[in-house]
Structures are given as structure tokens and as C-alpha cells.
Amino acid sequence: MINSDLHSLWEQRLAEYENSGQTIKAWCQEQAIKEHQFYYWRKKLCMEQAELGQPVKWLPLDMDRNKQTRFAQDSIAVHIGEVTIELKSGFDQHLFREIIQALQTV
């Protein structure tokens, strides 16, 4: 398969995943695709988009310092609407990205 064909195939696969509503693990199992391939191509295509000058889509976060919720000293709390996510040192960035994407659809 030619590289441009692979590129197109993975663009299509990633779009199908986005529309599936499934977790990466479940979608990859259903499609008989290895998770490491999924992550490789997602990263590769994201890097290419960034290089092409595609605008970054930022999610607005409200930093309300008046909330007195207690969290561990080695963590941060991200508040999105009524949801609070506590991130500890070494958190899984891919999982966090999936959570943010899921919250954006609600």
C-alpha cells in the first residue's frame, strides 16, 4: 500500500472512531487494529495538521480560585461546568484528552 493510501485510510479510520462513541480500546478490538497503531497514526496525523498551520482548538477553562475543594498537593483540579477532574503527576494524557472530548459533546 502506498504511503498516501495509508494516510487516507487512517484519516478515515480516525474519523470512524470519533463518530463511534466507543473507547479507543473497544473500537480497536472491534476493528482488529492494534492500539499502538491507532496511537501512532493519531499522533502522526495531528502533527501533520499542526505543521500545516491548522488552528488549535482550545477549550475554555474557568479558573475559579474561590472553590475550596481539597486535593492532594501533587495534583491539579480541572473544573469543566459541573465536572471536576483531578489530575495527579504522571496522568494519562490520552485518557484526559478523551475525557475532554466526551465532555465537549455533552
Write the layout of secondary structure elements.
Blueprint: H1 3-20, H2 24-31, H3 35-51, E1 75-80, E2 83-88, H4 93-104
Antiparallel strand pairs: 1-2
Helix pairs in contact: 1-3
Question: Which descriptors apply to this entry?
Answer:
106 residues, mainly alpha, 2 domains, two-stranded antiparallel ribbon, 4 helices
Could you describe the 3D structure shown?
With 106 residues, the protein is mainly α. The protein contains 4 helices and 2 strands; from the N terminus they run αααββα. The radius of gyration is 17 Å and the shape is elongated.
Helix coverage percent of residues?
A: 40-55%
The low-confidence parts are: none
Radius of gyration: 17 Å
Number of strands: 2
Q: What average pLDDT do the residues reach?
A: 78
The overall number of domains is 2
First-to-last CA distance: 39 Å
* Discrete helix count: 4
Placed side by side, the strands forming the largest sheet appear as 1-2
What structural class results from the helix and strand content?
mainly alpha
Oligomer: single chain
- Please tell me what the overall shape is: elongated
Relative strand content: 5-15%
Order of helices and strands: HHHEEH
Largest sheet: 2 strands, antiparallel
